């Protein structure tokens, strides 16, 4: 009886159950930013900044007015206990929050994949839009020269104070913060998911063929 050519406890040289090499792992740093994504981010910035003009018009028409009155020697608040000044800031902040949320929703619906350029575009565009809204509201609102305005209307006649933002930088950040938070939430809940990695084929145990001993 001749001895088998293949040792009894070793697989043949060309085992059909050989484990395949593992698939390539994705880059942990993520996909590189493309020129198209950068252009989309710039477009979001420009459109958001232009939308600031609409915010400025709405703020100018919806913000409560602070009334002043002059006695010929000085200018005073007509109602010293009024909350119109706070209402002006609150109106701007609420409008800015709404604009930021709508901007994030529109960007997400147009491009669900998201990306760093889009988020930066929402943030920068929100700041620029808020600045434009503040500038338009104060420019087209009542004059900032209160003394000249008081002299023009005469003593004892109430007139509107300039439209101002007492919150300053905090009001400027309402739009971009709302845009980034809403966009992040939409992406986390409804955004596309990364494909699950496939399990490697488990190596099968070697079975000695017939006629081997």
Automatic annotation (TrEMBL):
Compositional bias ranges of the Pro residues kind: 1-11, 19-29
Residue spans crossing the bilayer: 42-62, 92-110, 117-136, 169-190
Residues of the signal peptide: none
Keyword annotations of the record: Membrane, Transmembrane, Transmembrane helix
Coiled-coil segments on the chain, per record: none
Region Disordered: start-end pairs: 1-32
Protein name: DUF2567 domain-containing protein
């Amino acid at each position: 009886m001749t001895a088998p050519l293949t040792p009894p406890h070793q697989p043949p040289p060309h085992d059909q159950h050989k484990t395949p090499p593992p698939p390539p792992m994705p880059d942990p740093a993520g996909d590189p930013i493309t020129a198209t994504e950068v252009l989309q981010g710039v477009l979001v910035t420009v459109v958001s900044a232009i939308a600031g003009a609409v915010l400025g018009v709405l703020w100018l028409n919806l913000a409560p007015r602070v009334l002043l009155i002059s006695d010929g020697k000085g200018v005073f608040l007509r109602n010293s206990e009024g909350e119109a000044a706070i209402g002006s800031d609150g109106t701007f902040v609420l409008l800015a929050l709404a604009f930021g949320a709508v901007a994030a929703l529109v960007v997400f619906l147009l491009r669900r994949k998201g990306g760093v350029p889009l988020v930066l575009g929402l943030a920068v565009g929100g700041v620029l839009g808020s600045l434009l809204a503040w500038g338009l509201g104060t420019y087209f609102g009542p004059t900032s020269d209160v003394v000249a305005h008081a002299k023009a209307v005469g003593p004892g006649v109430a007139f509107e104070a300039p439209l101002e933002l007492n919150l300053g930088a905090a009001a400027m950040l309402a739009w971009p913060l709302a845009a980034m938070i809403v966009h992040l939430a939409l992406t986390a809940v409804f955004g596309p998911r990364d494909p699950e990695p496939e399990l490697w084929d488990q190596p099968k145990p070697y079975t000695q063929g017939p006629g081997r001993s």
